[in-house]
Specification:
The protein has 13 helices and 17 strands. It is α+β, with helices and mostly antiparallel strands. The chain folds into three domains: about 130 residues, Rossmann fold, CATH 3.40.50.20; about 160 residues, ATP-grasp fold, B domain (D-amino Acid Aminotransferase, Chain A, domain 1); about 70 residues, ATP-grasp fold, A domain (Dna Ligase, domain 1, 2-Layer Sandwich). The chain starts with a helix and ends in a 9-residue tail after the last helix. The N terminus is likely disordered.
Length: about 375
């Protein structure tokens, strides 16, 4: 993008009467490529009669770039990152770089993983006083840390599968003792998961103690805390949760979706690399009573973890007992053309485009409420 194009873009951004939505994508995480696919779908489905789209990409080195929306409009299933485009900075900058807040009404962060949906970007946007879609700092951070989320869910009286968590320092000091504890408390098979990753990156189903050691080594590539969870014979049932547009009313919950992986479990490969990696059933084939029970657990989990805007709540449904267990909450779920979150809302009567519009409206409403909060002590 040359200087003339940049000037024209800025002129449009500051004079348009439409709501200016910055679609923020990419990011420095192992889910960078997933974000590029999600953002492509969001870009194609935002209502251009209401919104002007300002695409901003974060490359793998952490630099922010103002991308060309017209060039991106012709992109395929995955958006590129134009790394030679205008650099974006958050504060106003005397060197002529684009100030991020200039001409932006709301940010739609379409990013996944650490430094993207864990509260880091959300905190940055809070400091810049910019409205943004999705959960705030607290819920984003808690939702990203699967182990902390399970603690809060357990304390709220909701069921979870038994687990053990291990930090890198403990593992390096005495991996044999950790392995012995896992074998005793959980047994095999078990799941090994980085506590702060998504999209099944670094996740392994472990059949025995020997494979456990290798799985832990790989998982520690992605995080310094690992969650080891007892494997149960379960169906994976998910619910899409959306903040109620009537402030203070209970969140809305979609019909359930079910994932039946053709791989041993719903791995990264089965999610994104193998077109036949899983069968997605929406609505899930569960009884009306189970649907109601699962929706209530999803609603309570959303509220317990202080979620706002949107979240996808993933549950296990034990094949033997019919018991639901909380698995995890995803505060910025995938928005690709085959992602469960938008598909579950479509099955519940909310189109993809309408869903995106609702999310933007919720973000702006929250921002307006927060602006009314006093930042100074007012004596009675």
């Amino acid at each position: 993008m040359n200087q003339e194009q940049r000037d024209a873009t800025l002129n449009i951004m500051t004079t348009s009467k439409k709501i200016r939505v910055a679609v923020l994508y990419g990011g420095r995480s192992g889910e960078h490529e997933v974000s590029l696919r999600s953002a492509a779908s969001v870009l194609r489905n935002l209502d251009t009669s209401r919104f002007e789209i300002v695409p901003i990409a974060i490359d793998k080195q952490g630099k922010w770039h103002l991308n060309d929306v017209e060039l991106l409009a012709s992109a395929g299933a995955s958006l590129p990152v134009f790394e030679n485009s205008a650099e974006v900075v958050l504060p106003a900058n005397p060197n002529g770089k684009l100030a991020f807040s200039q001409g932006i009404d709301v940010v739609f962060p379409v990013m996944h993983g650490p430094l993207c949906e864990d509260g880091a970007v959300q905190g940055l946007l809070e400091l810049a006083e910019i409205a943004y879609v999705g959960c705030g700092v607290l819920a984003s951070a808690v939702g990203m840390d699967k182990e902390v989320a399970k603690r809060l869910i357990r304390d709220a009286g909701l069921p979870i599968v038994p687990y053990v968590s291990v930090k890198l320092g403990e593992w390096e000091r005495n991996s044999a003792q950790v392995a012995e504890r896992v074998g005793k408390e959980l047994g095999y098979p078990c799941f090994v998961k980085p506590a702060n990753m998504g999209s099944s990156v670094g996740v392994h189903k472990v059949a025995d103690a020997l494979k456990f050691m290798a799985a832990m080594k790989d998982a520690f590539k992605y995080d310094t805390k690992i969650l080891i969870e007892k494997a149960i014979q379960a169906r994976e049932v998910e619910f899409a949760v959306l903040e109620n547009p009537v402030y203070g009313e209970p969140p809305l919950v979609s019909v359930a979706g079910e994932i039946a992986p053709t791989h041993e479990f719903y791995s990264y490969e089965s999610k994104y690399l193998d077109e036949n990696g899983a069968v997605l059933m929406i609505p899930a084939k569960i009884s009306p009573e189970q649907m109601k029970q699962g929706q209530e657990i999803a609603r309570r989990a959303f509220e317990t973890l202080e979620c706002e805007g949107l979240s996808r709540v993933d549950l296990f449904l034990d094949k033997n007992t019919g018991q639901f267990y909380f698995n995890e909450v995803n505060t910025l779920p995938g928005f690709t053309s085959i992602s469960m979150y938008p598909k579950m809302w479509e099955a519940s009567g909310v189109s993809y485009s309408e869903l995106l519009s609702r999310l933007v409206d919720l973000a702006l409403a929250r921002h307006t409420r927060k602006q009314k909060i006093s930042r100074e002590y007012i004596a009675d």
